[in-house]
Specification:
By secondary structure, the chain is of the alpha+beta class. It has helices at residues 36-52, 91-98, 104-116, 137-154, 215-223, 236-243, 253-257, 265-274, 287-293, 313-321, 326-332, 348-357, and strands spanning 4-5, 58-59, 68-69, 79-87, 122-132, 157-165, 175-186, 201-206, 245-246, 251-252, 277-282, 300-305, 337-343, 362-370, 387-390. Helix 8 packs antiparallel against helix 12 (348-357).
Length: 394
């Protein structure tokens, strides 16, 4: 993680200033809205968080121009590097409204590493990017603390990143997060649709809540149009609603919405190492059917049985506030399932036992069959019918 850069790409220490005049009385970088001194304070504030998100392969320390990682290729027969990039999205609006910034970094890591693990790749390291209108060292340190916590949960290192201050392009309190992760997998152990067979079982792993998808709809349902001049575009009435205890949720609405995305990386790797896993589907934007369809080959059908689980109360609350039709809820949200493992039929009991031991609520949610054996489907994904949901929730 480095200190802020200018839109032109200057690095820490390249400019400085303490007011409208520079050291020689001219116009300073700070007068243009970029506070390099604040960036240096931010680097110091985040240093401890970055240090705890490490691995033995990390070379060097915070402050360089690039992160170094010594991959021991002797451990692998034919290693493939996997990469993934993602962000948090408009969930940040909720964090800004509540001034809670230490959880969205976990969401950021989850979105990246759980995409990596879908192909069987072990997440190795991650680099983050924080863009803000005006750099607040305290807030940046909180954001990075969440990223570091997520990396610890995923078993990967935070080897660097960037904090960019964009005065004039972003509001003073605006910020956004993104990250890129790198993982490694043996070429002959890559998981995906090529391994999926008729008769395979679908093991659902519970989500921790809404995760980090669909928050544009969440905000539309709960707060309507964004209100200018308020953090996250959420005005006083919306803020009061976020802080209000919701009996059905057992907590405040804001706390429920900011619940960090569950990170499945270590659990999926353990599952793949100890049982016959053929594929994973990370349930993000697009919902259950569309994401599951991405790992089901043509000619097969994945069927999830709604009767096998009850979506958490937050989804019922959102559906009622709309109202939002079930089809739209399932196209937008994870509905309580954050990851699906496609496993051999004989591996179901072992998979469920392993996940239970690791503290991951999981259940048998469906099967893969020949497409011709399923009749009409209820969910269309991409340009072919390969995944569907049937029956009703309890």
């Amino acid at each position: 993680m480095t200190a802020p850069v200018s839109p032109g790409g200057s690095r820490p220490g390249s400019s400085s200033g303490t007011g409208s005049g520079g050291a020689t009385g001219g116009v300073s970088y700070q007068a243009a809205g970029v506070d390099v001194a604040a960036g240096e304070r931010a680097v110091e504030a985040m240093r401890g968080h970055v240090a705890r998100a490490s691995r033995p392969e990390v070379v060097g320390s915070l402050g360089g121009f690039a992160g170094l990682f010594a991959l021991d290729t002797s451990r692998y027969r034919k290693p493939l590097l996997a990469s993934s990039t993602d962000g948090v999205g408009t969930k940040i609006a909720i964090a800004r409204a509540l001034d809670v910034h230490d959880t969205v970094g976990i969401d950021l890591v989850a979105m990246v590493v759980d995409d990596l693990v879908v192909c069987g790749a072990e997440p190795l390291f991650l680099l983050d990017y924080i863009a803000c209108g005006s750099l607040d060292p305290r807030r940046v340190a909180l954001l990075v603390s969440g990223v570091a916590t997520g990396c610890e949960q995923a078993g990967c290192a935070l080897v660097g990143g960037e904090t960019a201050e964009h005065p004039g392009l972003m509001g003073p309190d605006d910020y956004d997060l993104a990250a890129t992760g790198i993982g490694v997998v043996e070429a002959d152990e890559v998981l995906g649709p090529e391994r999926v067979l008729p008769g395979d079982a679908l093991i659902a792993m519970a989500s921790s809540g809404v995760h980090s998808n669909g928050f544009s709809l969440v905000r539309h349902l709960l707060f309507g149009q964004a209100e200018a001049g308020f953090p996250g575009g959420i005005g006083p009435d919306g803020l009061a609603a976020l802080r209000r205890e919701e009996p059905a949720l057992g907590t405040t609405l804001g706390a429920a919405l900011l619940t960090p995305t569950r990170i499945y990386a270590k659990d999926c790797l353990a599952l793949a190492a100890q049982t016959a896993v053929h594929a994973f589907a990370h349930i993000t934007g697009g919902g259950l059917a569309a994401n599951l369809a991405r790992v089901i080959p043509a000619g097969l059908m994945a069927t999830l049985d709604r009767a096998s689980w009850t979506p958490p109360p937050i989804f019922a609350l959102l559906a009622e506030r709309g109202p939002v039709a079930r089809e739209e809820m399932e196209r937008t949200f994870n509905q309580g399932i954050g990851m699906v493992a496609v496993v051999a039929p004989a591996a179901v009991d072992d998979a469920l036992t392993l996940l239970a031991a690791r503290g991951v609520p999981a259940w048998l949610a469906g099967h893969v069959t020949e497409a011709s054996a399923n009749g009409k489907g209820t969910e269309v994904a991409e340009d072919r019918l390969t995944a569907r949901l049937t029956a009703d929730h309890p």
